[in-house]
Amino acid sequence: MHTSLPIKSLLVFDAAMQTNSFSLAAEQLFVTPGAVGQQIRKLEEWLGVTLFHRQVRQVEATLEARAYWARIQPALADILSASQSLKDSQSNAVWVSMPPGFAAKWFSRHMADFVTRHPDIELHISASSQLADFSRDRLDLAIRCFDGMDDALQASLLYDDQASAYCRPGYVQSKHLAGPDDIRHATLLHNTLHPYWALWLKQFTTLDATQLQAISGIHFDQTLLAIEAAKQGQGVVLTSPLLVEEDIREGKLEPLFAECSLPLEKGFYVVHPRQWTLRPAVALFRDWLLERMAG
C-alpha cells in the first residue's frame, strides 16, 4: 500500500536546504532540531534516498538532495506565494517601501491625512535606500527615484524631480555668494546617491578645471545627512525641492541661486509589478499618493 507524500516533511526539507542546518531550520520553523530530523527521516523513508549526511554538529546535503530540491523548490515557492496572496487578499494591510529621505521629509508630514481618511487600513512602511525586491520582500508598492523605465513595473509619476541648491540663512552673506561662480567660496555637500554637483557646476558656472578642483566638499551617503549639514551651516546642499519644503517654510534653509535649478531625467514614482492586480486597500493608498502629490 502506497503512503501519501509527507507534505509537511517537504517544508522542513526546504528550510533545511535553505539554511544548510537542522538547528537553523528549527529556529526558522519554531520547532526543535529533533523534530526537523524526524521529518527529514520520514521524507527519506518515503523517497528511499538519503538526503543528508549526518556528522557531529553539522549536516551535509547529498547530491540527490540538491538535485531534488532544485526540482521542487520553485513549486514550493509558488505555493507559498499563492497562499500568502490569498491570505493578503482578505487583509487591509499595505506594505510600502520608500527612500529614507522621502519617508522623513515628505511622507511623515502627510501620512496623518491618509490615516484620518482610512483608519481601517494598516500601513507598514519600510524606509531603505536598498532597491526593494517584489519577488522576495513582503511588499505591495514601492516609491522609487528613477526614470520610470522598467518593462516589469507599472510606474506612476509622483514628482518630476530637479536638483536645486540650498543653504542656511546667513550662509550667502558669510561666503559672499553673489552669483553662481562664487560657489567656489562655499563648501559643497555631496550626496553619493545623487551626485549632481558636477553637472550643476558645468551648466551654471564658468569656472575652469583648476578652480573647480579647489572647491572644498564633504561627501555623504545619505540625503538626510547632507540636508542636515546644510541646516547646520556646514555648506551648500544640492537636492530635490520636495525634500526641503518644510525646512524652507520653517526658515532653516533658503534657496541659493533659485534660477539655477538642474532638470533631472529622474523622478519619484510609485511602482508595482505590471502583472499585479492591486487589492482595494493598496489601490486606495496609491491613489491617495497621486492625489496628494498633485495637490
From TrEMBL:
Domain called HTH lysR-type: residue spans: 5-62
Keyword Chaperone assigned: no
Protein name: LysR family transcriptional regulator
Example GO molecular function: DNA-binding transcription factor activity
Biological process according to GO: DNA-templated transcription
Pfam families documented for this protein: HTH_1, LysR_substrate
Annotated CDD domains: PBP2_GcdR_TrpI_HvrB_AmpR_like (cd08432)
Keywords assigned: DNA-binding, Transcription, Transcription regulation
Family: Belongs to the LysR transcriptional regulatory family.
Stored InterPro entries: LysR-type_TF_proteobact-type, LysR_HTH_N, LysR_subst-bd, WH-like_DNA-bd_sf, WH_DNA-bd_sf
